[in-house]
Amino acid sequence: MNKDIVIVILVIMFLASIGGGFYFARRGPILVGSEPSKEICDILPLYTGASESSGGFGPSPYIAQDICRVVFASEKSDPAICDKVKIADVKGGCYGMLAVKLGESDLCAKAPADARDRCYSEAANKLGAEACENIRSADQRDNCLANAAGRLGDSSLCTKITGVNQRDSCYFNTASRNPAFCNEITNPQMRQDCQRNYGR
Hints:
Elements: H1 3-26, E1 31-32, E2 35-39, H2 40-43, H3 63-76, H4 79-82, H5 88-102, H6 113-127, H7 138-152, H8 164-174, H9 188-198
Antiparallel strand pairs: 1-2
């Protein structure tokens, strides 16, 4: 294993253990010294190794601070703490985690645009298919709806899928509960396979 990778992993584990110690000791953000506006997450050191933007391996410089904030956001169930997270994917994950925990998929609207669809998709896995409808990417929305239809056995969700192939697959996958849905499949070969597999 590359020496730099091992060092990065050890540094992250060290920072996580420090954050965990403070977390369990205080159960919330800790104010630092004479700067009452500065919290413990703010004083964690920035990662200074090679970054992905420079073509090397490594996380964002804010990774330790952001992980610290996600831990506090989860413990306090406070979306305002997620606002302070700097890395877009981590911020989206923070909102997604709280959306599921609090049962409020609307929190995903606060996630950065490039992480929002994933947030809604994660929320839909726990909260229901309504969250899928907020996903902007048609492919991701269709995938979310198809997964929800399969999980819930609700083929009515298949009608909301815009992609023909994905919609046909959705009907095929839910036809095991109601073979009549085989007739909704537009692809003749798939319809025939469905009727052969699930027809009575």
